[in-house]
Amino acid sequence: MAPGLAVAWAVLGPLLGCALALQGGMLYPRESPSRERKELDGLWSFRADFSDNRRRGFEEQWYRRPLRESGPTLDMPVPSSFNDISQDWRLRHFVGWVWYEREVILPERWTQDLSTRVVLRIGSAHAYAIVVSQGLLCPEYIL
């Protein structure tokens, strides 16, 4: 392995399986007879945590209810860089927690067969991400 080449494992738990992360992220999966893909690109509800300690979202548990109920949200295209999309000067150089939310309908086969392995690939989370499913904060799924 070349010096400076980082190889990291991200264990996403039994629901999400395992993922091998290489330098720029894990390899892109391809559709096949044994593999279904679900693209999550599109518009997501978005909110930056502008509080002084940048922890209001966790303190008020924004993940327990629809994000729009926690305060104003934006429609944010995914993938994108939120710093470059909005005209809000506070987002231009923002560093802190941001929240993305989208309701997803899973393929029926994924929910009927409990032995189905589902891998979540987040292509734009380059620093730190926490996955929330059905209002439950899942620290074991921290990327």
UniProtKB/TrEMBL annotation:
Keyword Signal: yes
Gene Ontology process terms (BP): glucuronoside catabolic process
Signal peptide boundaries: 1-21
GO CC term, one of those recorded: extracellular space
Keywords, comma-separated and alphabetical: Signal
InterPro entries, sorted: Galactose-bd-like_sf (IPR008979)
GO molecular-function term, one example from the UniProt record: signaling receptor binding
Family indicated by similarity: Belongs to the glycosyl hydrolase 2 family.
Full protein name: Beta-glucuronidase
